[in-house]
Known about the structure:
The structure is a single chain. Residues 325-339 have low confidence and may be disordered. The chain is 73% helix and 8% strand. The strands form two sheets. A four-stranded antiparallel beta sheet has the order 3-4-2-5. It has a two-stranded parallel sheet with strand order 1-6. α6 (132-160) packs parallel to α8 (194-222). It folds into two domains: 3-42 and 134-305, Multidrug efflux transporter AcrB transmembrane fold (Up-down Bundle), CATH 1.20.1640.10; 54-130, Alpha-Beta Plaits (2-Layer Sandwich). It has twelve helices and six strands. The radius of gyration is 39 Å and the shape is elongated.
Amino acid sequence: MNFRDKIARWNIVKHTKLWLLISIVIILVGIGAMVVNQVKTGYPLNFGIDFRGGTIISVTCEKTPDISAVRKILASEGYKNAIVQESSGNKISIKVNAEAVNPDTVNKIITEISTKVSKVDKNKTGITSIAPVIGKDLEKSGLISLTLALLFILLYITMRFTFKFALATILALFHDMLVTLGMLALLRIELNAPFIGAFLTIMTYSVEDSVVVMDRIRENLKFRTKETFPALVNRSITEVWVRSMNTSITTFFASFSLVVFGGPTLRDFSMTLMFGLLSGTYSSIYIASPLLVLWNRGKEKEEKVAKKRVISVSPEPQPNVNEPVATQDSSAKKTSAKKPSRKKKKSKRKRKR
């Protein structure tokens, strides 16, 4: 027996309560982390400079600068969470989560970079302050884009499948969002503008994975015979399980490599993407499809009750007793016709006398 045959025997739908319990526990842990962060820092998530405002220091060096050495200089000045990005032309962009930085501190940082890392062209040095208002506008536009994406997804799946399929997919999406946000809050990962792009990517991936499972359920429903709906859904899940896992593992390794080798600049974006991919794969198989079974249980009970009523109301077939009675009457008539009665025999004898 190969691995696919073993998967075909799995009863995933039977353990729906277990899958839901796992998701609820993870979501509650994430919500608890958000509450703790809100109490300690005033924010449920670790919003970066793009959301909370801050200062950007642009530096141009003569040679290619060592980014790790620049981070050590910033950490010594009290900016451990500063974001350092390298660009073409030996340029460095330093993002500090502080709306206003002391000019003396900026000059000290630039001087240390010039002496310890690479000589700095002071004529090409720039300091830009980002107000919190820009962060609020970014947050507002991000919420609008996420809401519109959810509405279009709901409309698309409703038109292609049914409203129940669309609702199950949307609930799975909310599950992925809560799980991802909870993990980001638990690990205190900094969120900046790329976070919105990562979130939209997670939504696209989760919907695509859920649509594959829903499409297989719809195909199997066309050729459904006496198979129950839970058994049909379970068979559909096992048929696409290998395909979903292969896609997820491949994408996971790609995002994990960015986490390990991408550096701090890409690490936050990659970790957001990685958590979303894992949650999206889990929800499409273990959350969205079992929800359809739970919603369909009431309908199946009604169908069973209706069938029992039809069986009880319909009369039982009774044997046709008319034919054998008729044959008995006819045979009796024949015998009576053949055997004359005693009275007729006596009358005949009297006449002869």
